[in-house]
Amino acid sequence: MKVGLFVPCYIDQFYPRVAVATVELLERLNCEVIFPLNQTCCGQPMANSGFAGLAKGCNKNFVENFSNFDYVVSPSGSCVLHIKEHLTDENEDAALHIRRHVFELTEFLLDVLKVEKLPSNFPHKVGVHVGCHGQRGLHVCSMSELVASPFSKPEKLLSMVKNLQMMLPERWDECCGFGGTFSVFEEAVSVKMGKDRIREHKENQVEYITSTDVSCLMHLEGILRRKKSDIRVIHIAEILNAI
To answer: Which InterPro entries would you find in this protein's record (predicted)?
Structure first.
């Protein structure tokens, strides 16, 4: 199948290795992956700040770049949710096609490709953090406040990785505090929330913290560096691609 790779701005600028791992993983699973060179910001920062109307140029550009693919895949739950909920254009048929066929990486692997096994090997102790957009918007895992059978697509994929020891924090579905513009306007609260998340992972003596969202990992990494911690952050694509 023909897959358009949607790479969020902060991955492109700060964590390009995540995009590379995503491409390699998808190609290993027999996808034809194409990276549209003219893609830019999806418009989420404007929408998060209450100015979704200012993202019309982003919407138009996104449709022009991604309307001709079977699927659009991104290693970012928050940006995918934004596209699903906010993408509109004069060419509404094209926008609708994208909204229905854009997927966060882990849901694409399980729901579309139906992956049942991986050749991955990652001999480390890993703490799992699922971002709020992926969890509560895309439903890649269950929420503790709901009376329902628990599930987690990221955990299911990580369980396929050889020699990986998965560790879940006690409050496994709590926000890390990033929240896009929230971390800018409510800095102190955001940092406290991040420290609370890190404390639980530290108690589990993890070597890495992984997530489906680089934005969450970027926030946690900043706190870890300031605390001079040995714990590192790694996107789930990098683990699933590790052999």
So the answer is: Cys_rich_dom (IPR004017)
pLDDT digits (tens, 9 = 90+) for 37-70: 999 999 998 888 888 888 999 999 999 999 999 9
26 contacts 104 by C-beta, under 8 angstroms: no
Where residue 43 falls (left for φ over 0; alpha for ψ -120 to 50; beta otherwise) is: left
Alpha-carbon span 45 to 180, nearest angstrom: 7
Residues in contact with 74: Cβ distance below 8 Å, sequence separation at least 6, in sequence order:
5, 6, 7, 8, 80, 102, 103, 104, 105
Question: What's the CA gap between 220 and 237, in Å, rounded?
Answer: 18
38: number of Cβ within 10 Å: 7
pLDDT digit string, tens, across residues 207-237: 999 999 999 999 999 999 999 999 999 999 9
